[in-house]
Amino acid sequence: MLDWLPPNVSTYGGEIDKFFYVIYYITAVVFFLVAGAMVLFLVKYRYKEGRRATYTHGNTTLEIVWTTATVAAMLILALVSKPLWGRIKQQTPMTQNMMTVQVTAKQFNWEIRYPGPDGEIDTPADSAAGTLDDYQVDNDMHVPVNTVVRVMLKSKDVIHSFFIPQARIKQDAVPGHTISAWFEITVPGKYEIPCAELCGFGHSGMLGQLYADTPEQFEAWKNEKWPPAPAMPADSSNVEAPQQ
Amino acid sequence: MSEATATKHHDAHAHQSFWSKYIFSLDHKTIGKQFLTLGLLMLFVGGGLALLIRWQLAYPEQPLPLIGASKQFAETGEPDSTSSWDKTWAEWLSKDEKDQNWLAKNVPTGVITPAFYNSVFTMHATIMIFFVVMPILVGCFGNFLIPLMIGTRDMAFPLLNMLSFWVAVIAGIVMIAGFFVPGGHAAAGWTAYTPLSSDPQWTGVDWGQNLWCMSLLILGISSLMGSINYITTIINMRAPGMTLFRMPLVIWSLFIVAILLLLALPVLTAALALLLFDRMAGTSFFTPTGGGEPLLWQHLFWFFGHPEVYILILPGMGIASEMLPVFSRKPIFGYKAMVWAMIAIAFLGWIVWGHHMFQSGMSPALGATFMVSTMLIAVPSAIKTFNWLGTLWGGNIRFTTPMLHTLAFVSMFVIGGLSGIYMASTPVDIFIHDTYFIVAHIHYVVFGGSVFAIFGAIVFWFPKMFGRMMNEKLNKIHFWLTFLAFNGTFFPMHILGVGGHMRRIYNPMQYEFLKDFQGMNEFISISAFALGFTQLLFLFNVIYSLVRGKKAEDNPWNANTLEWTAIYPIPHGNFATLPTVYRGPYEYSAPEVEEDWLPQTKKLATATTHGNGHH
User: How many CB pairs under 8 A join A and B?
Assistant: First the structure.
């Protein structure tokens, strides 16, 4: 059944899939044991004229055994799940290869905003006019592979959910909050960014595209689209304000 | 109520008018049947909506059969001579007020619009949860069974009981009315996440969402009246000898459900009131621009919503625990473990709500906490499953239709329980949250669980309710078709979820990564149509058996519990003399007697009495 998983292309996606498989095998075994026992009992103890059912009210030892076993199994599953959850949701890895993108959801588009040459989102470049040097576009997201992409998620109207199936990332965007999420793509390609939370009549079809570029492709795209960097960052007061 | 006053009460109702006997009846049995009628009617409304959803997903943006116009008409407006529906359409559409035309607005040329689609799935869930499963499991069987099974004459507050039903009817009318107001019905999902639901500008839905809130507020009043009644009756009015631990497990489940309702509904009521204020009085409890917090709604809703899930499944568990001993002809395995497991579910149910919010932006540290509590709530469910298996072990099993439905309940509940573990594991939930995996899960629990229990219970108690047996052959056909079509419909949804297929999307073919799932969606829809139409067979059987069914004996299943000692037609007041209880409810194949059943009321010559939990 898990063959239907979209091929994973992110660093932690493989680990999520590993958990998926572990739970899949555990639940499959439990299901077949329970269903097997049930079918066995149904056949073996089917109605026979004149036979009398076993008169018993239960077995305390059995109750203790299966209660303890289930508690142990569930706690272990929770404990082993916890570290991966923490790594994905509670901290963003600190590496050299990192970039930040602000994604603002709105009915029914993803507004993708790059920091521009100054490396900061929503801060004016060091220009007299104080204009933003950010680059912003709807629905097209370019990221280099093997780079930690930190997504600052916002929403302008209702709750949306940022979902990249192949990267195994999903995070709601909530108005009034800026939520930090991250992913790192390992396989270059084009992937879809559907919205996963009902957001109105246009929810279906609210769709962005993620272009996971090789470093060269990404540089080329950046040079083409991003506003030019100020010529002399140290003394940029007379550089003309970059146009968005 | 003392026995003397109850008898007087009974006499006073010996000659009742049609109105006081059938409409504004104070008799818990009639009120139970009224809730059953309400629930079954709404089942077909909710089911019809489900079929609309499935049509759209299998054949995206194609005209519906029957009301869909031909292609020629859709393109040119000229009726196709072969399609009489075109002419009807042409007539409808030629009216001046065609903007007011309900069909033209929601299904122009037979195609469901995205906005209407959102209303359809919102109302499918709302109706199924609040107007089908709750009225039938809690309203009908709670009312019908509690006084009969604990051996009393009626509910503690019969007037409150009658009001509880009619208030639910008002809530139902308000809910249905929402379909016909300008702007359409609520379209923010049954969970009504804010701010989508709190400001009409985001959905275009105005009075639909308001009526949705008002209807559920009204229904909350109905449920409160019912739950107070159930709790009071069970605590105060049990027959002599009916100790708490001699109560049938279905009564335990309804007792616990009533307590959950009493505690959970005020939270929903508060949340709905805040939502209405946001919508109608300009407050901004849930709107960040006014200083509100959208996630507050989710916390309030799921703080109610998770106990609500157990409100839907606990009576099903109780019903299964009644049928398994009757048809295995042996005592329930681990009676006390069963009771404590339900109590544990009721407690743990309050501290797991955050698992609906793992990806919501709630602190991920809380996510880890909720994962542990959620994993733990699997334990009492597992205990119940093992004890049900233990009940089958060593039995003398009869495969009647109620038993088949019960076995389906147990096995489908196992699948629904196991699939819950995937969501409980927070890392896996990142991927499957808001996909069809969760749709599969909820339907395995609420349809595979609660609805199979409902079918089983209706067939099982039909003779006591209506004095006739249901047609067993039709019942068996209905069971097998339902079982197959149910699995054909909902099992593949797990696979859709594994593929990443989001829930609540109007057209999956808009996504490249879902292109391979068209065939599966079509298969699911065909199964769903089969599932839907099979229920007409059940409806037919209910009506046919009401009129033509074989006259039932007083205790057709040779069951032990008190309701089978009441003689049909059970008068208002139930028992000529109140029964005395000598033992627990599941003394089947007890060695003291020759027959394989030993009613709770039967006094044995020897002094030995059996409680439960004694070996």
Answer: 290
Q: What is the distance in angstroms between the Cα of A227 and the nearest Cα belonging to chain B?
A: 32
Same domain flag for A143 and A204: yes
Chain A residues with CB under 8 Å of B510 CB are 204-205, 207
* Cβ contact, residue pair A56, B394, below 8 Å: yes
Closest residue in B to A70 (Cα) is B379
Tokens of A141: 């997201």
CATH class of B31-62+117-548: mainly alpha
- Boundaries of domain holding A65: 2-48+57-90
Residue B97 makes CB contacts below 8 A (sequence gap 6+) with none
> Residue A237 domain-assigned?
no
In the Cβ-directed half-sphere of A18, how many Cα atoms lie within 13 Å? 9
Q: Are residues A215 and A120 in the same domain?
A: yes
Q: Are residue A106 and residue A171 in the same domain, yes or no? A: yes
CB of B174 closer than 8 Å to CB of B214 = yes
A71–B376: do the CB atoms touch at under 8 Å? yes
End-to-end CA distance of chain B: give it in Å, rounded: 36
Q: What is the ipTM for the molecules in this complex? A: 0.91
Q: What distance in Å separates residue B50's CA from the closest CA in chain A?
A: 18
Are A80 and A109 within one domain?
no
Question: Residue A197: its chain B contacts at CB < 8 A?
Answer: 193, 434
Q: Is A129 found in the same domain as A67?
A: no
Q: pLDDT 10s per residue in chain A (244 long)? A: 788 999 999 999 999 999 999 999 999 999 999 999 999 999 999 999 989 999 999 999 999 999 999 999 999 999 999 999 999 998 888 888 889 999 999 999 999 999 887 778 877 665 556 667 788 899 999 999 999 999 999 999 999 999 999 999 999 999 999 999 999 999 999 999 999 999 999 999 999 999 999 999 999 999 998 887 665 444 444 444 444 4
Q: Do A112 and A101 meet the contact criterion of CB atoms below 8 Å apart?
A: yes
Query: Are A86 and A102 within one domain?
Result: no
